[in-house]
């Protein structure tokens, strides 16, 4: 602030004297770099305030040991990855930071302070960070911090788009909570303060105001929620400060070794359209390059983020024949791993474990379920890591011989799976 005020005062004095600031002043390397230092400081200040007290470590490219080809045009957006030594799949988080951390600790990925200790593990979070809870931004920042820490250790965290990410970028806030609106309202205040601080510094481009042109009142929304509603639109619309920064990094379809990850499910038409093409088009839409609404394959009941054909509560309702056809069209694919539909019985597999469902409704805003994650180690069969006290931790595995029923060794009084709309 003192530096910024100094620049402004110098500029005002020069104007009063009708004399320009000498060019030698800006040619001094120290003075030339100060605006960038100020900008970085302001960004860190805003991030710290919004994230609940996190300092994001510097971003670093993935190490060569990951054997991941660099593609500058894709902004590190990957569709196909080789099998890692250890792979962890995490289901829907829905704005519950405490449960999110519990799931990651369960897999030995973070310590008690929230620092990455997962080494070279690859983690796939299958989408739906947003809605139903009040820690949405805190989770986005926390995952970003872990991405950077993991990369330094040869690990990788991949986040995906769920239907709730798509809905929010489109401005559909039906499942936002009061706490979620308040979190975004606070973000809006801090972000605006940061922009005003930057505007004081000569040498910095005037920051873009994401609130410009947005209404201050919204029909059908209680007046007390208008500020939060407005801030959420500003943050999450295509190319918004939050959507462009965090959600544009998400994949929508991912193949890791023999496993296909997608939030809802894939149909033959999706595969023939092109998995890489889907990822790139959704990314470009979130970056504001292709209109207000998501591509058609992200909308309606048969969309990649909405499909429930392979996650119905009854195993006999899973279309195993269609699923097998889809997997046969994806080279090397043996299973599809999905979220979206809450499985109250826990992570489970059907159709000879070609369909594995990992949304356990862990968020307090959903079913407040016991955190569980799916683990693959080398070529061993996948196993379920669970915090459910009724099950023996770290020893539950998918029953590879199951043809129609649940592929999980359930405790005697397990609840049935339930479908939570959207």
UniProtKB/TrEMBL annotation:
PANTHER family on file: SHEWANELLA-LIKE PROTEIN PHOSPHATASE 2
Its Gene Ontology cellular component terms are: cytosol
The record's InterPro entries line, in alphabetical order, gives:
Calcineurin-like_PHP, Metallo-depent_PP-like, MPP_Shelphs
Name any one GO molecular function. Answer: manganese ion binding
Name assigned to this protein? Calcineurin-like phosphoesterase domain-containing protein
Highest taxon, organism lineage: Eukaryota
Q: Which residues cross the membrane?
A: none
Domain (Calcineurin-like phosphoesterase) spans: 86-195
Pfam name, any one: Metallophos
């Amino acid at each position: 602030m003192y530096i910024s005020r100094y620049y402004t005062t110098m500029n005002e004095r020069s104007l009063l004297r009708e004399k320009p600031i000498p060019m030698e002043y800006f040619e001094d390397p120290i003075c030339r770099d100060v605006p960038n230092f100020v900008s970085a400081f302001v960004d860190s200040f805003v991030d710290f305030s919004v994230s609940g007290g996190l300092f994001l470590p510097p971003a670093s490219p993935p190490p060569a040991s990951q054997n991941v080809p660099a593609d500058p045009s894709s902004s590190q957006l990957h569709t196909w990855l080789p099998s890692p030594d250890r792979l962890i799949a995490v289901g829907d988080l829905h704005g519950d930071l405490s449960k999110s951390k519990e799931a990651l600790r369960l897999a030995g990925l973070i310590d008690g302070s929230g620092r990455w200790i997962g080494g070279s593990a690859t983690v796939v979070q299958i989408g739906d960070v947003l809605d139903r809870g009040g820690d949405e931004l805190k989770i986005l920042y926390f995952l970003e911090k872990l991405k950077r820490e993991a990369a330094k250790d040869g690990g990788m965290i991949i986040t995906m788009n769920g239907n709730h990410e798509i809905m929010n970028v489109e401005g559909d806030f039906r499942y936002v909570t009061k706490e979620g609106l308040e979190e975004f309202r606070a973000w809006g205040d801090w972000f605006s303060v940061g922009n005003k601080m930057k505007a004081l510094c000569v040498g910095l481009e005037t920051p873009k105001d994401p609130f410009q042109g947005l209404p201050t009142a919204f029909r059908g929304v209680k007046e007390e929620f208008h500020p939060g509603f407005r801030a959420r639109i500003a943050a999450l619309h295509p190319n918004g400060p939050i959507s462009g920064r965090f959600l544009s990094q998400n994949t929508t379809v991912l193949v890791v070794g023999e496993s296909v990850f997608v939030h809802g499910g894939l149909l033959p038409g999706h595969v023939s359209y092109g998995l890489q093409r889907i990822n790139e088009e959704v990314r470009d839409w979130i970056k504001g390059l292709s209109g207000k609404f998501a591509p058609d394959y992200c909308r309606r009941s048969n969309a990649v983020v909405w499909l429930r054909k392979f996650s119905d509560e009854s195993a006999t309702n899973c279309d195993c024949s269609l699923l097998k056809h889809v997997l046969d069209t994806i080279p090397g694919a043996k299973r599809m791993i999905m979220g979206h539909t809450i499985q109250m019985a826990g992570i489970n597999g059907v159709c000879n474990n070609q369909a594995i469902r990992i949304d356990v409704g862990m968020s307090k805003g959903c079913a407040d379920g016991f955190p569980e994650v799916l683990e693959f180690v080398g070529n061993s069969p996948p196993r379920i890591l669970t915090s459910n006290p009724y099950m023996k931790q770290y020893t539950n595995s998918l029953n590879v011989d199951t043809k129609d029923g649940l592929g999980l060794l359930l405790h005697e009084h397990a609840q049935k799976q339930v479908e939570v709309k959207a």
